[in-house]
Amino acid sequence: xxxxxxxxxxxxxxxxxxxxxxxxxxxxxxxxxxxxxxxxxxxxxxxxxxxxxxxxxxxxxxxxxxxxxxxxxxxxxxxxxxxxxxxxxxxxxxxxxxxxxxxxxxxxxxxxxxxxxxxxxxxxxxxxxxxxxxxxxxxxx
Amino acid sequence: xxxxxxxxxxxxxxxxxxxxxxxxxxxxxxxxxxxxxxxxxxxxxxxxxxxxxxxxxxxxxxxxxxxxxxxxxxxxxxxxxxxxxxxxxxxxxxxxxxxxxxxxxxxxxxxxxxxxxxxxxxxxxxxxxxxxxxxxxxxxx
DNA sequence: ATAAATGCAAAGCATTTGCAACCAT
DNA sequence: ATGGTTGCAAATGCTTTGCATTTAT
Lengths: 141, 141
Known about the structure:
- The structure is a homodimer.
- Chain A has helices spanning 13-23, 31-39, 47-59, 103-112, 128-135; strands spanning 64-66, 74-76, 83-87, 93-96, 115-126.
- In chain A, helix 2 packs across helix 3.
- The first copy, chain A, is an alpha+beta fold.
- In chain A, the strands form two sheets. A three-stranded mixed sheet of chain A has the order 4-3-5. In chain A, strands 1-2 form a two-stranded antiparallel sheet.
- The first copy, chain A, has five helices and five strands.
- Strand 5 of chain A pairs antiparallel with strand 5 (115-126) of chain B.
- The structure holds a DNA duplex.
């Protein structure tokens, strides 16, 4: 009789594909981008399922949710803390190889008296790509 | 004839009050909170005007927009860069007196090859207030 | 067999926008 | 007088949710 336990999370094709899509890119995609990708494999999947599973993945620590402007969230298949660079011009998000500074949490805790357990650090500016296209001299026109 | 210049931003009672409300609090309020406050002074103001003006203030550098979770944006009347602490439990946002590390932008630029111009740093954990209510021993029940 | 998960569509919310009236310049 | 600004309401866009059905266990 103990064939099912309440609170158990089943393994489904949908969640499997969603996670693999997320792991297979470094573009920090939106839910909709994931949707379009997953649809290539599972044409009948619904957006609702994408959102539900992204949430499950984030809550179980297998993925990370990134919220920048007031626009849509982006997701990262790499769950361990790392820093990002966001291009002010094209909006692309890049991973940074900068080592994570764990000491800073302690420092913040000392001066604030709150219990600090983590931090999030993002850099802004103009990315490589945008920068080079801007500098392209436009002879003509 | 030169009585009006295109692109000029007029001074209005509405924007004035919005900015003063924003400057008058350290709670990093949402647009709706600002709306409710401003309404006490200007009962006929509309939410749309709040949003339009918050945007103008942010773009002109007089305020700052903070986006954390996928919920609503919060605004900060202090436009110069400083760090925040967000309580995972109650969601409150606090300013931190931690000095801003400008050198870190340079470091990020070196290892990334992007043009880094600024950064944003947020700490997470449990705030003072939540922490003490949690630790209150519950004798009885 | 059973409850978790899905697909679908409707609902929810924060934010934006079109437009006629209004008002600062 | 002119065009930026407002209030209002409708529209948008992302995300969530209710429900009947399907599916993993």
